[in-house]
Amino acid sequence: MKTGGKSYVSSPPAFSNDGKRLLVCTGNTVSIFSTSTGLQIASLEGHTAPVTSVIVVPASSPASKILCCCWTASLDGSIRHWDFSVPDLMKKVDIKMPIFSMVIPSLLVQPVENDEKPSDLFAYLSVEDTIEQENRPKASRGQIRKCNLTASRLIGGLILKETPTPEFVAVSSVGKFIGIRNKRKLHIWMVPEKDSGRSVSKKIALHHTKNLTVLAFHPSKRIVAAGDVTGRILVWRGFGYQTFSVSDELVSGRLVDKEEERPGVRGNDDADSCSTWHWHSAEVNVLFFSSDGAYLYSGGKEGVLVVWQLDTGKKKFLPRIGSPLLYYTDSPDPTLSSISCADNQIHILKMPSMEILNSISGIKLPHSLPGIYEGLYSGFAFDYSSGLVALCTENYGIQFYSLFNDRGIYEVQVCERNHQPADEITVVVTFVALSQDGSMMSTVEAKLPEEGIGGLVCLKFWALGSENKKFSLSTVIYEPHRDAGISAVAFHPTRNVAVSSSYGGDFKLWVCNDEIQEKGLMLQNSGWACLAVGAYKKKPMTAAAFSCDGSVLAVAAETVITLWDPNKNVLVAVIGETLTSILFPCPEVQSRSSLYGACQSCRYLGHTSFTLKL
After folding, report:
1. Which of 71, 157, 201, 520 is deepest in the core (most CB within 10 A)?
2. Going from the N-terminus, what domains does the chain have, and what CATH number goes with each?
């Protein structure tokens, strides 16, 4: 059995040391993709629950004995050490608590040449304590814990911080500081230079008036940035000089008494200044400093990557990414980086131009439809000739996804739309259908009425190009069933004919002009036109399908199924809800139809019929 279609953006990815591979958390596995082609080349399998962190060991790290090794953490409560070039599992650490985030600061410390014995390797974990305790409130289940990876055990009794829920742990690029956000506070710890089991520096807290969403450390200076739920970015400069001083003496010039001499700093927070930038209209999800510290990258629901110049606050943009941003990941190769988006795509960027070089596409999800349109939705269709599945997406498009390669191939934009975070849903793509050979496609879109006025249903037909193998729009039909919604669309298995049924009580047969030309009628414009209309007792038509050879059209009319001859548009039988069998025709009319309820001319004349019991 082949499985696929997992989320690629549940956790931040990680680049290999040469920048040629991207390690992506995909459910219980880590999928390894080529950054040049976007294709999956390997996977790390063994975790029994979703993987939440993947950390590639830098080539310059003293812990790097193998060029291609990484650490992973999972909700299954285990930490694993891999050689991902093989791939091969080298070590497993079981802490028996779900791990939501992990950092290993000592991997980022530059090696020092000496004869001392290598120190143990420590990880800082954000875990969930699932054990009920009477003296601890149920609301505080998140914990920041320390784990000795060398000894394969947690540091017993040492809890750096308890939080209502597990929080993402951030680490500075040189491994000197770690931090988390906790509602309206940032908690920051300084990692000891010679880390040991219980050596933990004091922590500081920086306060804000709104809930914080993300934080990032400057690569070389004592600067930390955080985003909040309103779209603001706060930049604290000179944090921790009082608390993190080497001795009891305070650093010269850092301790000031007057509030105005520490602009923007709240209360007794340990920072020299705090400045606020505001461009985003919704919460900030992405914050990351450039490797030289000159720029700060930010992103959120707008689908725009903003690049701030740290000294001046000036900004430039990478617009029209098309989906809210979740993570920005830097690469050891300074010419590459990646953006993870909410539509299950990871874009590989060429730096510093921020040009999209490649994309790793998972299955995209559709909009959550309003209640009145839930019954009109058919989210996918299969192209049996190529092994692709067509899916309605959130951005008013159709995504073609390869089931064999487990990757997105390309998209067709049904409605033109620029992503805006504050947009209300005004249009939904409710249906997609493909012909049996995959050469034709039909889509249905519905414009939602505003205050009960202005609703519109649109049926579109598309043709597959012979050269580029992509669909182009052929015909647009507005209100194909008056003001009624379309319940189904199906293509004839051998001809350029399609059927659409509606809740308004009718179905229509559509024919492509190419089909008409084959019969000798020369038409200059290629497109689709209505060939016939059918109805049954004014009942809503809720589904439609052709038989395998196309000789019979079945249309559901509430609780009965009507069978039609599509060539003559004649009703030939009705299967009622109380029937327990399907009647095949008597021998005298066997040639008239391959599927027939009974012989209309001799139903009561005693002729023999054959019955298939249900």
Report:
1. 71
2. 208-362 (2.130.10.10), 371-570 (2.130.10.10), 580-614 (no CATH)
